[in-house]
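Box S2. Input/output pair 1.
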Amino acid sequence: MNSLSGVDLNLLVVLEALLAERHVSRAAIRLNKSQPAISHALARLRHLLDDPLLVRRQGGLEPTARAMEITPALTEALDRMRHLLAPAGFDPATERRTFRLAMSDYGAAVILPALLPVMRAQAPQVDLVVSQASREVMVSQVVDGEIDLAFGVFPGLDRSVRSHRLFDERFACLADAASLGGRKTMDLATYLERPHALVDLRPERQSEVDKALAELGHNRRLSLIVPHWGVAPRLIAGTDLVLTVASRILPIQDDRLCVFAPPFEIPAFQFTQIWHRRRDGDPAHQWLRSRLQHLLDG
């Protein structure tokens, strides 16, 4: 249909809720409407777009290929309309807002302790919902409008995704202090002889540490692979394991452990925040990005 004449644009809000909830009853609750009203709207949408849009599967509704195709454009269009109709500016002291953030537990350990005191003091009515996913999933969530900001290392982003560097991160090593025999460092030969711990959600890929070793013609034995940054440092004391991770996760108070520089060069990496360009003009979004930039830029 080339004309909007006669089209109830509220149907698009219903479609957004249905695609998010994939369930008529939950969409009705979300929009504070009756279930028959949502069912009727879905029927009108199917006629309007000449597609079933959602088909019944076990446990709920599944979007068709056409529905998945239009979801990013629908999200962007509704976000732009909400921004157009929203009051000008953003007063963090009084306005209510929920931000959806995605980050690893490393990101949570670095970001949230700095951010939360600012949020509670300056924006007490603003809520945060934090989730964790792989790098690829976080990017797709940003593109699809499921989250507002994602944090991490994101090479090769689509042009629709904006990014801002928050800080440069380097690597450091952690080992049991007693196992170092009074030394505060480790040479490369000893490093390669030791078993190692790795933090990675996808252990099948080559880590930055192993890439750096491979360029020198070396490899290491990985004796422990865990998906969580937060628990890894606590597993090293009393063992012969070496943990090589982003340095900001390692300032821990434990006399049994020793932090030292890697005995070979590992390139630093940029830790960034990313968002979709549709959020560029959102005053609340701008405010949050600027707070994060101020707190973490360095």
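Box S3. Input/output pair 2.
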Amino acid sequence: MDKLYGFGNALIDVEVLIEDKDLNYLNIPKGNVKGITSKERDKYLNDFKESIKSYQPGGSIANSIFAFSDNSKESCFACTLGKDEFRERFLEGFSDLTQTIVSDSHKDTGTCFIFITPDGERTMASYLGANEDLSNDLINENILDGCKYIIFDSFSVFTQAGFRTLQFALKKAKKMNKTIFFGLSDSEVIKNNKEKVKWILSREIDFVYGNKTEIETLSNFNFQSPKNIICTNGSEGASFNNFKISAPKIKMVNTNGAGDAFIGTFISNLETLNNEDVLEISVNYASKVCETNGPRLKKNATN
């Protein structure tokens, strides 16, 4: 069974429409992400309350799991949530589409501001909150044993607790001979955690994925080369090792969640399509996400 097991950040995405000049106030380079405190979260919610477009469940791995499941495949997502108003909102985003494993935290559920400029580009500010409390309890060995793939990313595993959870998960996944996917997520996160990235790659990860900037950042380090590299390149399309595919022309709304949707669709079709076809169907699915508000399509959009 090509079931997918994922663990990572559970976030409520707060989409905010802004102008480019607002990025100076935020002090975030366009297209990048920065971590914020609970006080900054509250300040942003107040300062931008008139510009908030939506509140939607998000988190990179959660979005990828959703896309995988939307392609009529079974999956499981493990995460940590607070006992607050955002908890149920996040879980409702999966409903009965995906199996979930949840541990509780005394911290608030994580929040990610997705600041969308007029060109559709997204710049992010993330409050991790409960996500800082990832633990080994999220790796259910019985469920993992019934999965073919496991996925995680740098956003979630470079906190102290997250890295310990990663080490535990990799040990189990390797023992069970699972196919492993690792997402680079953000070039600055990679730069700031080089030794951890080096350790992960030394475990012979099956697939490493990221956008063009992230892949180029990784290539600048003298690390062990991944077995397989998947690279997304926005409107230019995507590549898988030596295979490339162009993206269709679309009316861009925003890029939030497009890369996540791409990789979820890629994994769901990996065993049944050739390399070019799996790239094409994944790029097309991600393009549909770019034409919507939010990081996900409606449930069962591919059916």
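Caption for Box S3: The chain has a mean pLDDT of 91. The longest strand covers residues 75-82.
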